Amino acid sequence: MGEGRYIQVGVTALRDPKTGEFLPAVPLYIREEDKPMAPTALDMHIIRELAEKYKKARQEMEAEKRRAREELKQAKKRIQILEDMETEERIEAGADMLRAFMAGEIKNLKRRNKG
């Protein structure tokens, strides 16, 4: 690998360009003198900013999920109301038919009783 001391920092597994399958894992090394130093104040500032943006994005995503769940709940309620109205209309139509039938039967009975 060359001169100097090397430290393994991870592994990588490339994909075969023809099949897309993973090739054997290969260790990743850096020279010891190239290893990263402790984070600087600027690094920490950037990390805090990114963490804050991530947190805000997560909160917005959760709020959107809650809104979507509430909209779905309201839509289901509206569907149930429409189904109930349709059922009531059918019941009322059936009752009208029954009343008409009974009125006709009553007229028939009255005719029979007169004759």
Chain-wise SSE layout:
Layout: E1 6-12, E2 26-31, H1 41-114
Antiparallel strand pairs: 1-2
Write up this protein.
The chain is mainly α and 115 residues long. It has two domains: 1-36, no CATH class; 39-114. It contains one helix and two strands, in the order ββα. It has one helix at 41-114, and strands spanning 6-12, 26-31. Strands 1-2 form a two-stranded antiparallel sheet. The chain is elongated, with a radius of gyration of 39 Å. It starts with 5 loop residues before the first strand and ends with a helix. The model has no long low-confidence stretch (mean pLDDT 88).
Q: Number of helical runs?
A: 1
β-sheet strand percentage: 5-15%
Query: What would the principal axes of the Cα set say about the shape?
Result: elongated
Arithmetic mean pLDDT: 88
Largest sheet at a glance?
2 strands, antiparallel
Spans of at least 5 consecutive residues with low confidence: none
In the sheet with the most strands, the strands line up as: 1-2
Number of domains: 2
Strand tally: 2
Secondary-structure-derived class:
mainly alpha
For the termini, the CA-CA separation is: 121 Å
How much helix is in the residues?
Answer: 55-70%
Q: Could you tell me the radius of gyration in angstroms?
A: 39 Å
